[in-house]
Design brief:
The protein has a domain of about 120 residues: Rossmann fold. Strand 7, helix 7 and strand 8 form a beta-alpha-beta unit. The protein is an alpha/beta fold and about 350 residues long. It is about 35% helix and about 20% strand. The longest helix has 18 residues. Bound molecules: iron/sulfur cluster. Iron/sulfur cluster (SF4) binds next to loops.
Length: about 350
């Protein structure tokens, strides 16, 4: 672990037992997170992308120890969070925050905004007097673009965007180092999404925050993240730098390539041209495929892929891929992804 690493994840696993339905008697498990290792560096935004149900949200909850793991380690600033007592965990939680996808269901409908924001201060013993707590709440409200007039309102009296601003305020009122953002804009209207993204970028600079940013939208990912991890069926299959690799289309895992070719761009003209989708359906996480989990959907799968799980290898500095044949993707798909990214960059620059 080096000083710049804030969160180090080693072989993290979470299997949920199935308690109802057909699989109950067999002692089956949903393999939500299945052996993930990665590092989130201090001050960066690490994006985590993948289709719904791939384990992204479970992964975020594990990092904050909101749920217990089946195996593996999470080191937060060199502290193994799963070895902590309740008291020690509470202390370190002050340095972590989380923002959920749906602000409506994550805010207590019976509490005023003031009480919602005061609660983390009470839990962590911050603010010595009532007045000081009120000032801290007012200060954070202002930082997220709300004001004193929102203090005594209830969540249902706010718009979706305002509710998400309250969720963000609640996550950062204790001045954490790390915030997990679990699809923070996907439940919001398109017009509000950009405002919330800009707010998150501004707050990151101001409070020197480290983000884990979860989304299924690679376009959002390109806008906010420094590095990106691509997750498939409980595993991270590729980790790459956003600016020099993802934005340039230099990807080496076929799943990443298909995701990029299938993600609609922000511009309607580009969207019309978008024909490619990730082939096939996501297999069940109850009984994941043998070897490489992507093999039933991968057009380049060979016998080895069915038998042997591909190891994660560093294909170039800081770029990791879990595929037996990355050169096949490089030859057959990467040129199309590069071409598409170039056309999207032109659209953004208003050149076509
Ligand atoms: Fe496809 Fe094989 Fe690579 Fe898996 S290991 S992504 S099946 S080529």
């Amino acid at each position: 672990m080096v000083r710049s690493d804030l969160v180090v994840v080693e072989d993290l696993k979470k299997y949920f037992p199935i308690r109802t339905g057909l699989f109950k008697a067999k002692g089956s498990f949903v393999h939500a997170v299945d052996g993930v290792s990665l590092i989130i560096k201090r001050g960066e935004t690490f994006g985590l992308a993948g289709e719904s149900g791939c384990g992204k949200s479970t992964f975020a909850r594990l990092l904050l120890r909101l749920i217990e793991p089946t195996g593996g380690k999470v080191l937060f600033d060199e502290v193994d969070i799963f070895s902590l007592s309740k008291r020690e965990l509470k202390k370190i939680r002050r340095r972590m925050g989380i923002v959920f996808q749906d602000p409506k269901s994550s805010l207590n409908p019976r509490m005023t905004i003031y009480n919602i924001l005061k609660r983390p201060l009470e839990i962590h013993g911050l603010g010595s007097s009532k007045e000081e707590k009120l000032n801290m709440v007012l200060e954070i409200l202002e930082k997220v673009g709300l004001g004193e007039e929102h203090l005594n309102r209830y969540p249902h009296e706010l718009s979706g965007g305002q509710q998400q601003r309250v969720s963000i305020a609640r996550a950062i009122i204790t001045k954490p180092d790390f915030v997990a953002l679990d699809e923070p804009t996907s439940a919001l209207d398109i017009s509000v999404q950009a405002q919330i993204l800009n707010l998150l970028v501004k707050l990151q600079r101001e409070f020197k925050l480290t983000y884990l940013f979860i989304t299924h939208n690679l376009m959002v990912m390109q806008y906010v993240s420094d590095r990106v991890g691509i997750m498939y069926l409980g595993k991270v299959v590729e980790v790459l730098n956003t600016r020099e690799e993802l934005n340039m289309g230099r990807v080496y895992h076929p799943y990443t390539a298909f995701l990029m070719l299938s993600t609609p761009a922000v511009d309607i003209r580009e969207r019309g041209r978008n024909k490619i989708i990730v082939p096939g359906e996501v297999p069940s996480p109850i009984n994941p495929p043998s070897g490489c989990r992507f093999h039933p959907r991968c057009p380049f799968a060979k016998e080895e892929c069915r038998r042997k799980e591909p190891p994660v290898t560093e294909i170039r500095k800081g770029h990791y891929v879990a595929c037996h044949f990355p050169s096949v993707t490089e030859e057959k798909l990467t040129p199309y992804v590069e071409e598409r990214m170039e056309s999207i960059r032109k659209l953004w620059r208003g050149e076509s």
